[in-house]
Amino acid sequence: MKVASKLEQIRHRINQACTKVNRDPNEIRLIAVTKYVSIERAKEALEAGIEDLGENRDEGLLNKWEVLGDKPLWHYIGSLQTRKVKNIIDKVEYIHSLDRLTLAKEINKRADRKIKCLVQVNVSGEESKHGLPIEETIQFIELLRPFENISVEGLMTMAPLTDNEQVLRDCFRKLRELAGQVQALQLDYAPCTELSMGMSNDYAIAIEEGATMVRIGTALVGEDN
Ligand SMILES: *Cc1c(COP(=O)(O)O)cnc(C)c1O
């Protein structure tokens, strides 16, 4: 199916979710995750009106960047090896996977401007997932104060793979509450107003629970070319 028609369906569901909880759909940034698909398909997404692309590997991002350049806003959404930071740092608008101090140090050292970061939180506590435990997140953010090139724009999480709506809702609500706690600290380097949560299977619920960025791959651009 064409990206344009999938996009129409997704925008419709985003609008429905927003209506349900009295939110403005313009508050929600839709990131097309193109990690499974070709450059052509990513181009199709841009032509359909997408402005934000997400990749989870430096090779994937660089390959597409060479062709698409900085027309889209790039989001780095995957776990990021410290030695890869220098490859992507001047190409990305947001890094969604800040989860340790060595990574913060490297970002700070390599950047020549403030980098918008989201701290990744492992809300569900699953061992297979990256991110900080909820209980360690605030302490971690407090340690980021000295890094002048890092701005903590918000938090990111990946929900468990489940159709259980209550489990998903709890996960997203916990991230929102945690962001509220960070906001209450009024740290000038950590406004923490963004919530990056929600993927193909759960974005409507994430929006109802406060997501400001949804990262959608399969449902929007598909898995193949
Ligand atoms: C792959 C990926 C997505 C998109 O997943 P879909 O289920 O295909 O929508 C979102 N976020 C992250 C971090 C990913 O790695």
Helix-strand topology string = HEHEHEHEHEHEHEHEH
Judged by helices, strands and strand pairing, the structural class is: alpha/beta
Number of helices: 9
Number of β-strand runs:
8
User: Rg from C-alpha positions?
Assistant: 17 Å
- Strand proportion, as a percent range, falls in 15-25%
Largest sheet: 8 strands, parallel
Distance between the termini: 10 Å
Task: Indicate the percent of residues in helices.
Answer: 40-55%
Distinct ligands: pyridoxal-5'-phosphate
Topology-level CATH name: TIM Barrel
Give me the oligomer status: single chain
* Strand ordering within the main sheet: 7-6-5-4-3-2-1-8
**Global shape:** globular
Mean pLDDT: 96
CATH class: Alpha Beta
How is this structure best described in words?
With 225 residues, this protein is α/β, with parallel strands linked by helices. The chain has a single domain (3-221), classed as Alpha-Beta Barrel (TIM Barrel), CATH 3.20.20. The protein is 41% helix and 17% strand. It has helices at residues 3-21, 39-47, 58-68, 85-88, 101-110, 134-142, 165-184, 203-208, 218-221, and strands spanning 29-33, 52-55, 73-76, 94-98, 115-120, 150-156, 194-196, 213-216. The chain has an eight-stranded parallel beta sheet. Helix 6 (134-142) runs parallel beside helix 7. The protein is globular and about 45 Å long. The protein binds pyridoxal-5'-phosphate. Pyridoxal-5'-phosphate is lined by residues 33, 35, 56, 77-78, 158, 199-200, 215-219.
